[in-house]
Design goal:
By secondary structure, the chain is α+β, with helices and mostly antiparallel strands. It has helices spanning 19-39, 66-77, 105-120, 131-148, 153-165, 168-175, 179-188, 191-215, and strands at residues 4-11, 44-52, 55-60, 82-89, 124-127. It has a domain at 4-137: Alpha-Beta Plaits.
Length: 218
């Protein structure tokens, strides 16, 4: 098969949680991935699952869908924070349909990317074997998460609703508030700029995937 994308994740600062809290959050994570795997079954090559304690892994078919998956995990797992390592390339299935029984360059790159994300205290780190592209994507994500780090729960909620519904009016109706109140929240949080940056990331990922396909690069 052609190149795919492996996403490794790690719950940020999870070791600071008390043992009972960790147990509860691990159950929460499991239910999160059940929902994610069902909702995005058409995008997923190997289901997302917990690999150990506070880490998880999954494989998606298209590089262009990485941001969609990352944003959905961020939403489903809130208020927990996650670091992501993204590796693009070939995988070896060895007859299995679950990621922990697979191997290949994409897995090694995702593991190395997650290690760098932790080391550099970043939320997202890409390794697609194109240094200039990876630098651009990683820098955009650095800025996106710098903005998000200042958000309240209300900012996140209205950002997710706006992305889904598309207008201030629809979000306002869902909360029985004025469109102006929604506008104020999103603009104060710079959420519209974040969405524009995410849209640019998705365009860049589509172009990179097209380039990799034409190069026949693994």
């Amino acid at each position: 098969m052609g190149p795919v994308t492996v996403i490794n994740g790690d719950i940020k600062a999870s070791r600071k949680l008390k043992q009972m809290e960790r147990y509860e959050w691990q159950l929460f994570m499991k239910s999160t991935f059940v929902q994610l795997n069902e909702q995005y079954a058409d995008l997923i090559e190997a289901p997302f699952m917990i690999t150990k304690g506070d880490e998880f892994q999954g494989v998606i078919r298209n590089l262009a869908d990485v941001n969609k998956i990352i944003c959905k995990i961020e939403q489903l797992i809130y208020p927990l924070q996650v670091r992501f390592g993204v590796g693009y390339g070939a995988i070896h299935k060895m007859g299995s349909k679950i990621p922990i029984e697979m191997d290949g360059p994409a897995f090694h790159r995702a593991a190395a990317a997650l290690h760098l994300a932790k080391q550099k205290k970043r939320y997202v780190w890409f390794d697609t074997q194109n240094p200039s592209f990876d630098l651009a994507i990683n820098t955009i994500y650095l800025l996106i998460f710098a903005i998000k780090s200042k958000w309240s729960k209300n900012s996140f909620t209205r950002y997710w609703k706006y992305k889904e519904m598309g207008t201030y009016e629809k979000v306002a109706n869902s909360e029985a508030v004025s469109p102006q109140a929604v506008w104020d929240t999103l603009h104060h949080a710079r959420a519209i700029e974040v969405i524009e940056a995410e849209n640019m990331v998705e365009k860049m990922l589509k172009e990179r995937a097209r380039e990799m396909h034409s190069e026949g690069n693994s």
